[in-house]
């Protein structure tokens, strides 16, 4: 086990390489969305406008989330010592506004690229961000306990209005005080 810089207690321990692996996969997937190449199909104007709107809107949402974190913003999934639970601003709309914004912007970019490779990279990015969000949620649950549980019940993960039965079951199964991987 290793501790990220600025992390002083068990609740933000990151297994060796896991956080770096997620970050590396995220960066590779984003690069894949912007892979070079000529478009393979023409986009109808309405689709291009919609994709551009996703690209801009996603960047705005991600920026709002980043500004909301301020100096607590980190690329690796861990909680710096002294971190507080953010529940206002963009974090009052979705639990992971940076990831949601990145997915929206990448969706718009992948559509605008008009090639299959960026769309495949988008699927990889969605999977990686799902894993990264889940890991961060376990850390948040350990650090903030019932306050995080209440927040997680009230605010959707990444898409407003969408909560799945599976997410509710996972929230109930992990006891407060469990380790980052669900171990006590």
Task: Give the biggest beta sheet.
Answer: none
What integer is the average pLDDT?
83
Shape: globular
Q: What share of residues are in beta strands?
A: under 5%
| Count of DSSP strands | 0
Name of the level-1 CATH class = Mainly Alpha
What's the order of the H and E elements? HHHHHH
Structural class by secondary-structure content: mainly alpha
Query: What helical percentage do the residues reach?
Result: 55-70%
Structural domains: how many: 1
Low-confidence stretches: 1-14, 174-184
**Count of helical regions:** 6
CATH topology: Four Helix Bundle (Hemerythrin (Met), subunit A)
The CATH architecture is Up-down Bundle
Characterization of the model:
By secondary structure, this protein is mainly alpha-helical. It has a single domain (24-173), classed as Four Helix Bundle (Hemerythrin (Met), subunit A) (Up-down Bundle), CATH 1.20.120.1630. 57% of the residues lie in helices and 0% in strands. The protein contains six helices and no strands. Residues 1-14 and 174-184 have low confidence and may be disordered.
């Amino acid at each position: 086990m290793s501790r990220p810089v600025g992390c002083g207690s068990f609740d933000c321990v990151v297994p060796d390489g896991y956080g770096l692996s997620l970050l590396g996969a995220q960066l590779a997937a984003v690069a894949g969305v912007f892979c070079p190449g000529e478009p393979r199909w023409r986009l109808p104007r309405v689709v291009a406008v919609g994709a551009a709107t996703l690209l801009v809107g996603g960047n705005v949402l991600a920026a709002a989330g980043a500004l909301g974190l301020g100096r607590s913003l980190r690329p690796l999934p861990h909680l710096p010592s002294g971190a507080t639970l953010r529940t206002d601003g963009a974090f009052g709309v979705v639990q992971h506004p940076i990831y949601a914004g990145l997915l929206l912007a990448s969706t718009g970019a992948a559509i605008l690229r008009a090639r299959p490779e960026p769309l495949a990279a988008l699927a990889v990015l969605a999977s990686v961000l799902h894993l990264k969000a889940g890991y961060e949620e376990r850390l948040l649950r350990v650090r903030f306990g019932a306050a995080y549980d209440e927040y997680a019940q009230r605010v959707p993960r990444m898409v407003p209005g969408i909560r799945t039965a599976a997410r509710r079951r996972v929230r109930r199964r992990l006891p407060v005080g469990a380790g980052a991987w669900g171990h006590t």
